[in-house]
Amino acid sequence: MASQLLKGKKGIIFGALDERSIAWKTALAAYAEGAQIVLTNAPIALRMGKINELSKLCGDAPVIPADATSLPDLENLYQKSMEAFGGKVDFVLHSIGMSPNVRKSIEYTDTNYENFHKTLDISGLSLHRVLQTAMKLDALNEWSSVVALSYIAAQRTFPGYNDMADAKALLESITRSFGYYYGFKKKVRVNTVSQSPTVTTAGSGVSGFDVFLSYAEKMSPLGNASADDCANFCVTLFSDYTRMITMQNLFHDGGFSMTGVSGAIVEDEQKAAAQG
User: What is the mean pLDDT of residues 190-216?
Assistant: First the structure.
């Protein structure tokens, strides 16, 4: 049962496409906890997705188109959000990621560099733009919280994750760097959540995703964290109970990131060897 953890808070949710997306579930969780929200995505994603359905589920939340690689779009987003809220913003979810190389099945070692630049721009540098624009417009209240979604491929190699791994590494670096400046300036905290592999429209496009999912489930003592679990974790990071956490990459993966090998994996290898 919701406890109104975000009562009185106002936030912007980037990236909700459909009911499988973490941003979608986070919007629902934040609304259930008493928050007012604005929903945003790139214009093309708004046409392809179901964000208007989500708006109705969240008390007719305003939907404001914004390409996160466009500074004018972001300025318009913040200005219209503050008008809708009648004040500044308390939290932001950055759930933005796209790789043309992944979509076109271009191998990492044969990367198309124009595509690579787009991956870095959309999936990593967009966080810098989101933060820079908020700071210039003074759009965030003191002790606000910005959360961006990441993946452990920023630290470890996962074949098939391609240039998205580099983009997530950039995303986490921006979190540390901008979090330093925003913390001193406005007490705004900036963190990334490194989520388990999750069945979303974006995640499912990664080569070998089903294998990733199964392997992580067997490796993680608690199993894979679901999109609903991630949404609830994001809500706690938006709340005042985590106001002293900033510049962190927080693993939300059932223990996967700290497990060297699990009994289930050893048993699978033993069975494979016996059958071989």
Answer: 81
CA distance linking residue 29 with residue 199, whole number of Å = 18
Report residue 101 as tokens.
């190389």
Whole-model pTM?
Answer: 0.94
Task: Show the tokens assigned to 274.
Answer: 């016996």
pLDDT tens-digit series, residues 61-119: 999 999 999 999 999 999 999 999 999 999 999 999 999 999 999 999 999 999 999 99
Q: Where are the domains of the chain?
A: 10-275
Domain 10-275 has CATH 3.40.50.2300: no
Q: What is the mean pLDDT of residues 30-43?
A: 97
pLDDT score recorded for residue 179: 98
CA distance 134 to 112: 32
